[in-house]
Amino acid sequence: MTPKYAWFGAAFIIGLIADQVSKYWIIDRLRYGEREWVIPGFFELTHVRNPGGIFSFLADGSVELRMTLFVGAALLAIVLLLLFLFRHAPEERLLPMALGMILAGAVGNLADRLIHGEVIDFLNVHLFGGYVWPTFNVADSLIVVGTGILMIEMFLAEEPEDSDSEDSRRDSV
Prior knowledge:
The structure is a single chain. The chain is mostly helical. The protein has helices at residues 3-29, 63-86, 94-116, 138-156, 163-172; strands at residues 35-39, 43-50, 119-125. Strand 1 (35-39) and strand 2 form a beta hairpin.
């Protein structure tokens, strides 16, 4: 197995297991709506469910619309992530790890929708001035961190040298 698939597979499996175990742990530990402070005034566990998308997008939409849109989007994302993975060199590590994290997050939230009909969220961060960040889960974190790594990797990646333009420059001198 090439490093690319090993890093991708490890990030995907570890991420998906962490997401699903944490969600079942919260279901078992807290009743719906119940809160438990971890760091008083800053971080708490809160068992909530989100039938919508990011920031509760379409939470009030019909079940059929939500399931069609969100399951379809997740399946499209899975296909695109895998296509993106296949395009890269076998020795790459960081980019495949980021793609594995994003895929784990997408599959984790997709599993919630298919099993529970909505996404289980439970991480709640209180910021300055009484602002509370929208409740999220491990899958959401994997998507954000994986996307951040992917963006950094893409911006810092060296541009491949174009041998044709290099040859044409030499010929013109």
